[in-house]
Amino acid sequence: MALEAAVERAVTECINEEILKEFLEKNRAEVIKVCLYEYNQEEHMKFVKEEGFRQGHEQGREQGEEYAKVLAIQNLMKNTGWNAKEAMKALGIPEEEREKYQSKLQEGQ
């Protein structure tokens, strides 16, 4: 059953059973709108929360991977005497990402 039909039915049943009968008869359209809006708002807020969690998790993972690469570069430089370019090449860091990691090394991350 569609949500709108279910809400309509619930309001009709309440009126038939004299539950808030006068109020529902007078404000039927508004009650139905509010019920539908609140339901949709609830679903929307759930979606927003889940999407935010997913994005935060993904962003945290990416930051963790970057941090691990910076540490690996630093360790290779320390243990082998290589410069940053040599260490990044040995780790297989793509050319287009090396400037980003060079900046992170200079920032002290």
Features of the shown structure:
single chain; mainly alpha; rod-shaped; 109 residues; 87% helix
Summed up:
With 109 residues, the chain is mainly alpha-helical.
Task: Describe the SSE topology.
Elements: H1 3-16, H2 21-80, H3 84-91, H4 95-107
Characterization of this structure:
The protein has one domain (3-107). The chain contains 4 helices and no strands. The model has no long low-confidence stretch (mean pLDDT 91). The protein is an all-alpha fold. The relative contact order is 0.07.
| Helix run count | 4
Most strands sheet: none
Total domain units? 1
**Low-confidence spans: pLDDT under 50, at least 5 residues?**
none
Outline type: rod-shaped
Quick check: average pLDDT?
A: 91
> What sequence of helices (H) and strands (E) makes up the elements?
HHHH
Q: Name the beta content range.
A: under 5%
Number of strand segments? 0
Overall SS class: mainly alpha
Distance between the termini: 56 Å
Which percent range fits the helix content? over 70%
Our Rg estimate from Cα atoms comes to 29 Å
